[in-house]
Model the fold of this input.
Amino acid sequence: MMSQLNPKLLDMLVCPFTKTSLTLSDDEQHLISAKAQVAFPIKNGVPILCADAARPLTPEEEDALERHRHRKTSGGPA
Done:
């Protein structure tokens, strides 16, 4: 199921803890803060960016984030 998150909105949002950019999860149901190592849920297309909603990244999300970082630094498709 797609999150229906507006791509322009994703470009403007930052992590409330670190003020760094966020990455859309592979399942498009969470926004990931790489620096804070947390995931924020997206409900009905609306990111919930509050401390109570944040949860630690799963090992699978950490792996996906690392693959995403590697693609960006190696010049491959992001």
Remarks:
- Residues 59-74 form the longest helix (16 residues).
